[in-house]
Write a structure and sequence with these properties.
heterodimer, A: alpha+beta, Rossmann fold, Phosphatase 2c, domain 1, 5-stranded parallel beta sheet, 5-stranded antiparallel beta sheet, 11 helices, 23% strand, elongated, B: alpha/beta, Heat Shock Protein 90, Transcription Regulator spoIIAA, 2 domains, 6-stranded antiparallel beta sheet, 5-stranded mixed beta sheet, 26% strand
Chain lengths: 414, 243
């Protein structure tokens, strides 16, 4: 026979005490009742002496003499750990907090229905049961379920790993695509890049030429695998263009036609191309709907924006691109970026106001750090952009700077 | 143990709980019921934030000592913006050392906690010691598209920003219109603050598909200045007349 659960009841109101005891007994519990705190403590000592156990303490909180809370404290002092259900006449927040502090299991506001009372009793007892881990059967069942879960988890893991590996390959390919080695070019370069997710649509490449460098920055709409695929297309055509030495205008025309032809899900691409010739000290720029090229001279405080015109790539077959040539001077710095930077935004929590970094925000960062060496300048601007948007990114972001060296190129051929 | 209390005006809900992990789900359920009243249906980001903060408070703040208390309050600021405050009784921590950017490697699980909270919220504030954290959250709804006829025009009225996330839906709506063969389209951008390049591509392609029609007319109304600049920069203003 299963031993009856033993409930110890402390309640000063005679009627309520008898009612509760009756309810509990009818529900199949063994009940010991006491009419006040001191009697309760005495009885509990006797019970403990006989090495009997109490499964649950039900006590009223407000009683003449020793209160329910004191009873709980005293029991604890005896080194006993009874789960407890406390009956409160005024279940306000402070009382509940005090009960939590004493580690009580449950409370019940007066008045209450018998069903509710029994429900709470069962809740506490069940919680206790679980705690004691008496349910060997449950445990074995749980163990069985666990191993089943483990098996399917392994399965998922394997599938996931396989997919992951494929994605990793794509991600690696994309990273290689946009990774340039800033120290290896004839013109000193510094850059930072942050794709929104693993794969992105921003693209950068730099190629040395006999007299200087060609730089290309492009932004494919979106930041997913499709966008990366377009980035590959841009890369291939840029490589080919650099090998053949065509002019920039025809490169953009060619790129445009390829993007229209091969880009299955039409995506807009904006791009900016900059050719720096540090022997003749000339530059050529071509843009396709891309944010402007920014220039800061050695003696110049305010950044200068070099006009941005031209159709975007990948949409119109008859697109027209904008070309401009100008003289360059040693010490001048050129900045190319994608609009993820100027669109970086933050929301002020308390007011809900949304602020975008904007072009003028970027300009003031460029102005602020213009006296630093190129690499540190870009580093600082980058950090400021991150803290401006609180690391909440909404788009791929790319920033590249090139500095016209003093005294010609660093490594002239031969 | 668990105590819940709602402010009289119904604009905030507070929880007081003992440090027991099992109560976290309870709080999440109750806050969800509370949020539904404000027509908020997408909670996944919010749940992540709340769970993270409560777990932190119980585990790292109160060291799982049941008798220590966690208080949590969710307060509506306006419309769909809320402030969530969680406080524990621990000694706090050095929150200046937190890294808010998510780790590059998604398999890295350690130290993601606060980066996740950051990613799903507008702003995070701590008290001096770090035992109380306040997080500001805006619930953003997915943009929906209202399409209706007005005189000879088909009016397309998006409910919010046009981004890559909603571009498929946007494309779908426009294709439906194309199939019905209308000629005059008016885009009302009064609720649009931002259009990203993916959605811009959708607009361009829509115009190109239409261009075979002789009578076509496209216009955009109620567009903010930033967007007007964007339209000029991408020469979209030559396809869509800005009214």
């Amino acid at each position: 026979m299963v031993e009856k659960k033993h409930i110890f009841l402390v309640e000063d109101e005679l009627h309520l005490r008898l009612t509760l005891a009756l309810i509990l007994r009818q529900a199949g519990f063994r009940v010991t009742a006491a009419e006040d705190g001191s009697t309760a403590l005495q009885k509990i000592r006797e019970i403990e002496k006989k090495s009997e156990k109490v499964d649950l303490l039900v006590t009223d909180i407000q009683m003449p003499g020793i209160s329910g809370l004191q009873v709980i404290d005293e029991i604890k002092k005896m080194g006993l750990d009874y789960p407890s259900l406390v009956i409160t006449g005024y279940g306000n927040k402070d009382t509940v907090i005090e009960l939590m502090r004493k580690g009580c299991s449950e409370y019940l506001d007066k008045p209450f229905e018998p069903e509710e009372f029994l429900k709470r009793v069962h809740v506490v007892l069940e919680k206790q049961e679980l705690k004691k881990a008496e349910r060997e059967k449950q445990v074995t069942k749980i163990e069985a379920e666990k191993s089943e879960i483990k098996r399917s988890e392994e399965n998922y893991k394997q599938n996931f790993e396989r997919l992951r590996q494929q994605i990793d390959l794509a991600v690696g390919a994309y990273r290689d695509l946009v990774e340039i080695k800033p120290d290896s070019y004839k013109v000193p370069i510094a850059y930072r890049f942050k794709p929104l997710s693993d794969l992105g649509g921003d693209f950068v490449d730099v190629k040395d030429r006999p007299a200087g460098c060609d730089i290309l920055v492009a932004d494919v709409a979106g930041h997913d695998m499709g966008a990366s695929y377009h980035a590959v297309l841009v890369k291939v055509l840029f490589d080919e263009y650099c090998r053949n030495g065509n002019n920039g205008q025809s490169f953009f025309q060619n790129l445009n036609l390829h993007l229209i032809e091969h880009g299955k899900h039409k995506r807009m691409v904006t791009a900016i191309f900059l050719r720096l010739d540090i022997e003749r000290m000339k530059a050529e720029m071509i843009t396709a709907g891309h944010p402007p090229l920014i220039l800061i001279g050695p003696e110049q405080v305010k950044p200068e924006l070099l006009a941005t015109k031209g159709d975007v790539l990948g949409i119109f077959a008859e697109a027209v691109f904008f070309r401009r040539s100008f003289d360059i001077k040693p010490g001048q710095r050129f900045f190319l970026y994608t609009d993820g930077i100027t669109n970086a935004c933050r929301v002020d929590g308390p007011t809900g106001l949304k602020t975008k970094l904007t072009q003028s925000g970027l300009d003031s960062l460029l102005e602020k750090y213009r006296t630093l060496p190129l690499t540190r300048m870009i580093e600082h601007i980058w950090q400021d952009v991150f803290s401006f948007c609180r690391c909440k990114f909404r788009d791929d972001m790319l920033l590249l700077a090139a500095e016209i060296p003093v005294g010609g190129s660093r490594r002239l051929p031969r | 143990m668990f105590y819940v209390e709602e402010s009289k005006n119904g604009e905030s809900i507070s929880f007081t709980l003992s440090s027991e992990m099992r109560l976290v789900d309870h709080v999440i359920r109750e806050t969800q019921k509370f949020l539904v009243r404000f027509d908020i249906v997408e909670f996944s980001g919010f749940k992540l934030v709340l769970r993270e903060l409560l777990n932190n408070a119980i585990e790292h703040g109160n060291y799982n000592i049941t008798e220590r208390i966690v208080t949590c309050r969710l307060q509506r600021l306006e419309d769909k913006r809320f402030k969530l405050t969680v406080e524990d009784e621990g000694k706090g921590f050095d929150y200046d050392k937190l890294i808010m950017a998510l780790p590059e490697d998604p398999r890295q699980i350690r130290n993601r906690g606060y980066a996740l909270v950051n990613a799903f919220s507008d702003q995070i504030n701590f008290n001096d010691t770090g035992s109380r954290v306040s997080v500001y959250i805006t619930f953003i709804e997915e943009t929906s598209y209202d399409v209706f006829g007005q005189e000879d025009w088909q009016v397309i009225l998006p409910s919010g920003d046009l981004t890559a996330a909603t571009a498929d839906n946007f494309r779908g709506q426009l294709i439906k219109l194309l199939d019905r063969g209308f000629a005059r389209y008016r885009f009302d951008f009064k609720n649009v603050e931002d259009i990203d390049s993916v959605s811009l591509s959708v607009l361009i392609i829509f115009a190109r598909t239409l261009s075979s029609q002789d009578e076509k007319e496209l216009e955009v109304v109620n567009m903010n200045e930033d967007l007007q600049d964007l339209f000029q920069m991408t020469r979209m203003d030559q396809i869509y007349s800005i009214v």
